[in-house]
Design brief:
Layout lengths: L1 H45 L5 H24 L5 H26 L2 H24 L13 H24 L7
Helix pairs in contact: 2-3, 2-5, 3-4, 3-5, 4-5
C-alpha cells in the first residue's frame, strides 16, 4: 500500500515542477515583450509631452478598426456575394492605410513608406486572390479558399504591426 502512495507523491512532484517552468517561461516572455514599452516609458518621462504620441497610434487603430467593423457588418449579408466582396475591399483598404496614417501623424515618413508598402502589398495580394477565386462562392471547397484566407490574415497583421510600431517608436522629434 505504501508503494502507490509514493508513486502518487512522485507524480505530484513532477507535475509541480512543470507548472513553475511554464510560469517562468511566461514571465520571461512578458518581460521581453514589455522591454520596448518600458524603454518608451523612460523616454517619455525624459521628453516633454507630445500629443502625437497618443494621436498617432489612435489614428492608426481607428483607420483599421472602423473599416473592419463596417466590412464585417456587410459580410454578414449572407445572400449578397457582391456586397461581401465590397466589404473585403473596404477592410483591406483600412488595413493598408492604418500604418501609413499612424506613422504620418507621428511624423515618421520613412516608416510610413516602409510599413505602408508592406501593408499595401499584402492588401493588394488579397484582392488579387479574391478576383481569381471568389471566397464567398458556396460551391467551392475550403481548400480552394486558403490563399485568400492567408493573405487576408497577413494583411491584417501587417497593418496592425505598423500601428504597433508607431506606438513603440513614438513620434519623430520636433525640429526647432
Amino acid at each position: 500500500m505504501g508503494r502507490p502512495a509514493e508513486v502518487a507523491a512522485q507524480a505530484r512532484t513532477r507535475q509541480g515542477r512543470r507548472l513553475p517552468r511554464a510560469l517562468v517561461a511566461a514571465c520571461c516572455l512578458s518581460a521581453l515583450l514589455a522591454a520596448p514599452l518600458r524603454a518608451r516609458a523612460e523616454e517619455a518621462a525624459e521628453a516633454p509631452a507630445d500629443g502625437r504620441a497618443v494621436a498617432a497610434p489612435l489614428a492608426g487603430v481607428l483607420t483599421a478598426f472602423v473599416p473592419l467593423v463596417v466590412g464585417g457588418a456587410l459580410i454578414a449579408q449572407d445572400d449578397n456575394r457582391a456586397l461581401q466582396r465590397d466589404a473585403v475591399r473596404i477592410m483591406v483598404a483600412g488595413f493598408a492605410a492604418a500604418p501609413i496614417v499612424s506613422h504620418a501623424v507621428a511624423g515618421r515618413w520613412r516608416r510610413a513608406l516602409v510599413f505602408g508598402l508592406a501593408s499595401v502589398a499584402t492588401s493588394a495580394a488579397t484582392l488579387v486572390a479574391m478576383s481569381v477565386r471568389d471566397p464567398f462562392d458556396p460551391t467551392i471547397g475550403n481548400h480552394k479558399r486558403l490563399a485568400f484566407g492567408f493573405l487576408f490574415t497577413a494583411s491584417f497583421f501587417v497593418g496592425a504591426g505598423g500601428v504597433v510600431d508607431s506606438f513603440v517608436v513614438g513620434p519623430a522629434p520636433r525640429v526647432n
